[in-house]
Design brief:
3 domains, two-stranded antiparallel ribbon
Length: 205
């Protein structure tokens, strides 16, 4: 029956049950000949209510016949209802960085970009002093650094491109001739246009 229902071929089902000795049953018809339960399909589950006549209780009766009549909603209707149901999923929201965190992150980016991702001992000491003065915890500082590190891991070729870009950018905006030079260098080094943009953006703060 379950397979028939899933395939959409079952819209109605009647189940007949006989009992010679049933005790403690509530809601019997006056002649105890039949109990009819009408089911209304609401969503995936089934809800049932006894008919208004079935309100008397009896403790013990013989030859009781129970008839359960189930009506199912068409599968297509159920699928449509499920498709239209909006499920809200919890979303993680990135809290905006504080001014102190932005300041620390900017200093970290400067150190990271200056030597192709390598930190000198003096740079690390400087960042540590800055972290303490800005009131940033060690854990939070690590989170801020980790948010940048994956995108700024540079190969030798990418570091070479970055150094050339920094020289051009140090004089102000990139001129057309400098951009053509950078593009030729990028192609020679085997760096894609998208990756070059990421590298350049790493120092555009």
């Amino acid at each position: 029956m379950a397979t028939q229902r899933l395939q959409g071929g079952l819209l109605e089902h009647v189940e007949q049950m006989e009992s010679q000795n049933i005790g403690g049953v509530t809601a019997a018809l006056p002649d105890l000949a039949e109990i009819r339960i009408d089911f209304i399909i609401l969503s995936i589950g089934v809800e049932g209510d006894l008919s208004p006549e079935a309100e008397k209780a009896f403790k013990q009766k013989d030859n009781l016949s129970l008839r359960i009549h189930v009506k199912f909603a068409p599968v297509s209707v159920q699928y449509m209802a499920n498709a239209n149901e909006v499920i809200s999923l919890p979303q993680q929201s990135d809290s905006s960085k504080t001014t102190a965190e932005q300041e620390y992150l900017t200093a970290y980016k400067e150190c990271l970009a200056s030597n192709g991702g390598e930190f000198s001992d003096s740079e690390r000491r400087l960042l540590e002093r800055m972290r303490k003065s800005l009131g940033i915890s060690v854990k939070r500082a690590a989170e801020l650094e980790d948010s940048l590190t994956p995108a700024l891991q540079l190969t030798e070729a990418e570091s070479e491109y970055l150094e050339e870009y920094k020289l051009c950018a140090a004089e102000g905006s990139i001129t057309d001739s400098e951009r053509r030079l950078l593009n030729r260098m990028r192609k020679t080094l085997g760096i894609s246009d998208e990756r070059a943009i990421e590298i350049e953006s790493s120092i555009n703060y």
